[in-house]
Amino acid sequence: MKIRAKMAKGDEVKFISHLDLMNTLTRALRRARIPIKFSQGYNPRPAISFGSALAVGIVSQCEYIDFELKTDFSVEKFKKDLNQELPTGIEILKAREIPVNTKSLMAKINAARYRIEMKTENIIDENEAKEMLADFLAKDEIMIVRKRRNKSDREFNLRPMVFELKLLDVMEKRIVIEALIQTGSSGNLRTEELVRAFQQRYPISNEFELTYVKRLGLYVKQKDKLLTPIEVALE
Amino acid sequence: MQSEEIREKLEDILPKVSKPTRYLGNEMYSIDKDLDKQQINFLLAFPDIYEVGMSHLGIKILYHLLNEEDGIAAERVYTPWFDLEEKMRELGIPLFSLESKEPAKNFDIIGFTLQYELSYSNILNMLDLANIPLESENRTKDDPLLIAGGPCAANPEPIIDFFDVIVIGEAEELIKEVVDIYSQWQKTEDGKEKLLHQLAKVSGIYIPSFYDIRYNVTKVNSFMPKYSDLSDSITKRVISDLDESYYPTQWIVPYMDIVHDRINLEVARGCSRSCRFCQAGMIYRPVRERSQERLEELASNLIGKTGYEELGLTSLSTSDYSQIKGLTEKLVEDYSDLQVGISLPSLRAEPFSVELGKKVQQIKKTGLTFAPEAGTQRLRDVINKGVTEKDLIETVQAAYDAGWKRVKLYFMIGLPTETEKDLAGIVSLAKKVAEIGKLKVKVSVSTFIPKPHTPFQWVSFNRMEELKDKIDYLKQNLRGKGLSLDWNDPALSLLEAAFSRGDRRLNQVLIKAWQLGAKFEGWSEHFDVSIWRQAFKEVGLDLEKYVYRDFNLEARLPWDHIEIGVTKDYLRREYNKALAEEVTLDCRSTECSGCGVNQILDVDNCLVGGGSNNED
Ligand code: SF4
């Protein structure tokens, strides 16, 4: 059977890498004696697949993971037993059985919502912040350079990859925005790149330091409709 | 700076350093005790980075053993990597414990483990980062008590200025006695001297400041205990029954990849093969095995609690464990369903090893590793490595037939009496092995370092130029299909040789070298031998001359007051047999070789499979 779960990755574990998280989950599954399926061969891998890898340092309340089990297992028990074995900071929030032939998450997720907090040394003017976002959204083209490991840098237009921007809060030297941006295999924008685009264009932003990023949602975006991965599987 | 402020600052710093996971400290089964409410706070320190330190079994044992006690909290600290250290110094953050982010200086006791000589400079760097005076004579009652233990404590002289207490032998046996004495003393107004004097009475405890030792150029000139009630030698502490000794039933599961990321099940302690270069074989005597029953119980607990995917059966020579076959079969049978791989990290070159290897299949992907150590039978007899060419070839053939594709062979260069023939022997042996089918053979060469408490403790370290020539020879000749060579920098070995047979004068060299910037010596990219040459010179010694000074067979050696269990007479006998190319057989299968361990330590070889127990 297949279970799709929604998981939180909190502050306590925000620095652990994607691979560390995989190992942590595998070990927790073994402790909980959940009959996870393993691949054959000398290096058996558990049948766990993530919707989207989360960058190190970012917390999330919406990681989606598919688990393939060898035998039937109560979904309620899966969630309860696994949570008991997970370290603080990692929690299964939801678990649903999904059809075995459901397409992999990776292939479908294409949008992510983030809460992004930045701070500066100066007091921030709220109107100026609002103008910045409005101006950004009014543009058709915003170019940014992406540094790639072992490859030459690449310049690309990030504007089409930004679907929504909202000002959530301005507190003296701190500003909080929410952004819905493109993610996944068809194109992936990083929050760090979005912030860099602000810094390069708007004086109010050039001193900004990215302090806290939280992933709020992962979606399958179809035109203007946003579906969560669980909704997609059960549609 | 207090832990709250350290935590806050780390929030900003950690995103900017490499591998911040090293410093989290909230892994599964790490402890979370309120330090303010404990009688004793104990900091376990490992002078290398997290990935290395976390792989070490001894610290795991002590950590869980201490934390199971009420009133004691034990936390961990490893050496911060360069990038974090830089930020800490910039912002004035002192060395802190992983769990509570408590400054190291606030702990009652700090215990360092001495695993390899090349980590000594990190100890000084950590003390400095902690704002703790480096030398024990400059510390007061308010500073933590500094303890050291581990294999290098077999000759602690080069680092005694920095420690108040040295533990000789197995710490899990005496650590609670130390803590008890400390906490009694804490309630009094007594000075540190009184505490140390009480500790000195615990068997296995060495208080270096109570012994005045003076040297002339090459030998110990005078040796004077400070109090009349002190013994003039300190006898190693050992556990007589491993089954009864503490072993954790769960342990910290790290998030990040560490060097040995698995459950280590210590099947036995000690080795009786008597390889003459091997310090571990001497200092961990006698052989003591755990019962298969106890091991199965531990395996079940540890797998159940940690969820690890690999269980390693460890010991100095795992295939010597008398129940190894039965144990391996049982573990494979019990845990293959859970996809737990069993691994056997140290096997002897004998066909039986391949048979074991087949059972656990895990090894197949990593390749088999064997250590003939020397290229000719003559030299293998000198060093008493009881492996013949026939053994090796048969073993490798069996491995090849069973599907292995890769073999790693360990050799040493610079061994006593080594000639060109022996080097040529390495080449021809490796080639013979490579000719078996299409095997890939990796030859790994290290430099022989004479170690205290071994039959070769008097033998000279090879000249640097010669070592370089030998490596060049191997580089030129070990070419061809399937062959590759891997060697380590002889300059690193030179430094290790200086420290392993060092004396008290090295304490000042160490301080100098650290002041000149020495740290992370074990990491060859950070090792700079010129710093050390300079440091030796400033103290009035010469690194090369110091390493090559003569050790006389009859003279008192700098570590002679450390009683490891084997007698000096036995070591001298073995040394002479080595020169005569005579072998000594394993005392488990034949007669007692008379090393003295069972009389001095009053503990016999303890084999669960019955084997001969050389007394009675
Ligand atoms: S077999 Fe030889 S080298 Fe290995 S631990 Fe025993 S004595 Fe040392």
Describe, in plain words, how this protein is organized in 3D.
The complex is a heterodimer of chains A (235) and B (616). The longest helix of chain A is centred in the first third of the chain and has 14 residues, at 18-31. In chain A, strands 1, 2, 3, 4, 5, 8, 9, 10 and 11 form a 9-stranded mixed sheet that branches. Chain A has a two-stranded antiparallel sheet with strand order 6-7. By secondary structure, chain A is α+β, with helices and mostly antiparallel strands. The model of chain A has no long low-confidence stretch (mean pLDDT 91). Chain A has 6 helices and 11 strands. Chain B has a 6-stranded mixed sheet, with helices on one face. In chain B, strands 15-16-17-18 form a 4-stranded parallel sheet. Chain B contains 22 helices and 19 strands. Mean pLDDT of chain B is 93; it is low at 612-616. In chain B, strand 7 (211-215) and strand 8 form a beta hairpin. By secondary structure, chain B is α/β, with parallel strands linked by helices. In chain B, 35% of the residues lie in helices and 14% in strands. Iron/sulfur cluster (SF4) is lined by residues 271, 273-275, 278, 280-281, 316-317 of chain B.
